[in-house]
Write a structure and sequence with these properties.
The protein is mainly alpha-helical. The chain is built from 13 helices and 8 strands. The chain is elongated. Keywords: Membrane, Transmembrane, Transmembrane helix.
Length: about 375
């Protein structure tokens, strides 16, 4: 089980209360909280606050299930709507929202009646539930001292995928320990049986026992060997590229916002101002977004291919690059037609809005997939 970390981040710029989608409706659709802003006592706008999903969470949960964790729950004090959205994205078995610390303890104790239970948390509110679980895991990098003191295991990095690594390491260590103990005992029993019937002289038996001990110790030492954990290892060059393109994703958020805002403007008032906005959006696509996608295709993906098992692993993401370029070219063609006819024709608006909204959807999905599947490979 896991709980969302406290704190929220703004999901976008200040939003007007008027326009195509009122703030309350936008907050409901996005699962966001609203912070209203006022100027001289009058409402001036609002900021939508969302708690973003950790990029490494989907990979972590996949590996936890592969490691034998059968049931995954989310216990959170947050509202039900964003919690259910997170649960749907991660494929959780159950989500329980708007819980108090006492409710979390009760939920953990109920799960303990069915199986060994692991609780993961990072806040003060999680400390009682961590203590109540069979195994409590605290995220100490940003968590509280109380949760760290209540937990059995403390992860010192702010990465959930280290939990999957810990499970894999523990399972491997236990398997090696069982192999060494059983193997050593069986070999010793066989040697004693042979000595008992006179097939093994005392001196030879003593030497054989020493050999058995050495073999068992060498087998146990395999636990010290660092294997591939829950996430594939990347080369230093690939890791540098991941950090570079992750930073570019952050810098390109204003381009994504411009695409969506221009589509909204075409729906609201398709006049000269809308054409100007469309021209600015096209400039951002050509000068900033498309070079980023091209560099990903020709630098990042080839660098990640050996880690991911070959170029086929990035084939679907490459198809998204093609679609982004196709929609950008279509928008450019609409601009050429508008310049040729002195403005946007009514017959262009439906297809142009479709291109912009489609591009917005593809870009946001593509960015999320890259962040979860590729960028989460690097610390």
């Amino acid at each position: 089980m896991t709980s969302t970390r406290p704190g929220s981040r703004p999901s976008g710029p200040v939003t007007r209360t008027g326009g195509p989608l009122p703030v309350d409706n936008r907050a409901l659709l996005d699962g966001a909280a609203v912070a209203w802003l006022s100027l001289d006592g009058e409402p001036a706008g609002a900021v939508l606050l969302r708690d973003p999903l950790r990029h490494d969470a989907p990979r972590t949960l996949r590996h936890l299930r592969a490691a034998g964790i059968r049931r995954l729950l989310m216990l959170t004090g947050d509202r039900a709507a964003p919690a259910e959205e997170v649960a749907a994205v991660l494929g959780l078995d159950e989500v329980r929202a708007e819980l108090s610390p006492a409710d979390k303890v009760a939920a953990v104790r109920a799960e303990r009646e069915h199986a060994v239970t692991v609780m993961v948390g990072d806040g003060v509110n999680d400390a009682p539930a961590l203590a109540a679980a069979d195994i409590g895991v605290a995220m100490a990098a940003r968590g509280s001292t109380a949760s760290s003191e209540a937990a059995d295991i403390v992860l010192t990095t702010d990465r959930v995928d280290r939990l999957a690594d810990a499970v894999v390491i523990a399972q491997r260590a236990r398997r090696i320990a069982v192999q060494s103990a059983l193997g050593g005992m069986l070999l010793s029993l066989a040697a004693m049986a042979a000595a008992a019937v006179g097939l093994l002289a005392p001196a030879a038996g003593a030497l054989l026992q020493e050999g058995i001990d050495v073999a068992v110790i060498l087998n146990a030492l395999r636990a010290l060997r660092v294997g591939q954990g829950a996430h594939p290892a990347v080369t230093p060059a690939a890791e540098a590229l991941i950090h570079r393109f992750a930073d570019e994703h952050h810098d390109l958020q204003d381009v994504l916002d411009a695409v969506r805002d221009t589509a909204d403007r075409l729906s609201d008032a398709p006049g000269p101002a809308a054409l100007t906005a469309l021209e600015e959006t096209h400039r951002l696509l050509v000068e900033r977004l498309l070079p980023h996608e091209y560099a990903e295709e020709h630098e990042l993906y080839p660098a990640l291919a050996p880690t991911l098992g070959g170029p086929e692993a990035t084939a679907t993401m490459s198809r998204a690059h093609t679609e982004i370029e196709r929609l950008s070219r279509r928008i450019a063609t609409h601009l050429e037609l508008a310049h040729a006819h002195g403005g946007l024709a009514p017959g262009q608006l439906d297809d142009l809005r479709s291109c912009l909204y489609g591009l917005d959807t593809v870009l946001r999905l593509h960015f999320t997939q890259e962040e979860e599947n590729y960028f989460s490979l690097a610390p």
